[in-house]
Design a protein that fits this description.
about 70 residues; mainly alpha
Length: about 70
């Protein structure tokens, strides 16, 4: 996964997370508090998924091969 796709995936998941939190407590809580809580739980899992997507390693990078970083890093 290249850096651009990783960044797009990360910010997409973070946007979903933010939309779930804001939607849960600004709109949904007026009709159903348990549904708002469920949306927040889903947002927490989206946050965790965003963390993993944002920290994926590319197979061609030096840390995937093991060993020392290139000079100048």
């Amino acid at each position: 996964m290249d850096q651009r796709r990783r960044r797009v995936g990360y910010f997409t998941l973070m946007g979903v997370c933010l939309a779930l939190f804001v939607g849960a407590w600004a709109v949904v809580r007026h009709w159903s508090v348990p549904a708002a809580v469920a949306m927040c739980v889903a947002a927490v899992f989206a946050l965790i998924a965003a963390r993993f997507v944002g920290h994926l390693r590319d197979p061609g990078h030096w840390w995937s091969r093991g060993g020392e970083p290139p000079a100048g890093r």
